[in-house]
Design brief:
The chain is an alpha/beta fold. About 30% of the residues lie in helices and about 25% in strands. The protein contains 7 helices and 13 strands. The chain is globular.
Length: about 300
């Protein structure tokens, strides 16, 4: 199938090359007298560009857990983003921003947990951070026990005092719809009606431990666990969002069943290489923000 596609695109590239340079004749060694380029090289370059353009519009290319490259067909039922890749830049503080036409069209945020220790939220506010996503809790990958994040209360209090808009997230290790709903009920119980300006997020990702209870889930089982959380949060009247990285969305979730929810996409890269629409992009885990010791995850929320 790939060879057939390459052949078609090769012919298209040849046609474009001939029509673009004209039939004015060739010089020696395959060089077109008008264009001044090696026609073989130009043809190969055009064919290669067309081929990968075709592939990237229709497939997500991602390495699986064994390092094997997979071509995952894009689900056409899920909306795609229309971001301008040339519009990403940095502001005067060194934070990445999205500024099409030179006008900033995003907000800069962080996500934090107990791993960031005790945060000075006054300094964070002064450092130009627009929003914060706070971990409320997590389920253990081994025991399955649900625990409150040790810095949750501090972070909620600090963002409230400083007037920093916030959302919350829960690190899931649910293995069924029922456990996903259980995690959601834990979140609602411990939120205690506190005001949020951003969604409640389900953080679903690889535990990166050979003993993790979620390792052998099927795509359907994992998706159902997500739906258990999302359905329960939605029924309680809150906005809900799903967080995952490129491999997780492409290989471990049925994105067609999650298309009605907003997505928070994680990819540590200069640019996001992901076809679907997403509201927040987590672009690095190595951010530096005054008031936070060590590294912190940095995010862009698109307007």
């Amino acid at each position: 199938m790939q060879n057939r596609i390459k052949l078609i695109l090769l012919l298209c590239g040849l046609s474009l090359c001939l029509s673009g340079c004209g039939a004015a004749g060739r010089g020696e060694a395959g060089v077109n007298a008008d264009c001044g380029v090696d026609t073989d090289e130009a043809l190969l370059a055009a064919q290669d560009e067309m081929y990968w353009g075709f592939i990237n519009r229709r497939f997500i290319l991602i390495n699986d857990e064994n390092g094997e490259l997979q071509y995952v067909k894009v689900d056409n039922s899920v909306g795609r983003h229309n971001l301008d890749m040339d519009a990403f830049t940095e502001n005067e503080r060194g934070y990445r921003i999205y500024a099409p036409g030179g006008t900033q069209a995003c907000k800069v945020g962080i996500d934090v947990s107990k791993h960031n220790k005790r945060i000075d939220w006054q300094k964070v506010k002064s450092a130009g951070i627009d929003f914060a996503m706070i971990r409320i809790g997590y389920r253990g990958y081994g025991t399955g026990k649900i625990l409150l994040d040790e810095q949750f209360d501090w972070n909620m209090s600090g963002t409230l005092v400083e007037g920093i808009p916030r959302g919350i997230y829960f690190y899931s290790q649910a293995i069924s719809y029922e456990e996903g709903a259980e995690e959601a009920r834990f979140v609602l119980s411990n939120l205690k009606g506190a005001a949020l300006q951003y969604p409640i997020v389900l953080d679903t990702e690889d535990a990166e431990n050979e003993d993790a209870r979620t390792n052998n889930l099927t795509v359907e089982e994992r998706t159902q666990a997500c739906l258990g959380f999302c359905d329960t949060i939605t029924a309680a009247g809150y906005e809900v969002m799903v967080y995952a990285n490129k491999r997780w969305f492409a290989l471990d979730l049925d994105v067609g069943q999650l298309k009605d929810y907003d997505w928070w996409y994680a990819q540590y890269n200069d640019l996001p290489t992901f076809p679907y629409r997403f509201s927040i992009w987590q672009y690095t885990a190595k951010g530096k923000v005054p008031g936070i010791s060590g590294d912190v995850d940095m995010n862009i929320e698109f307007d």
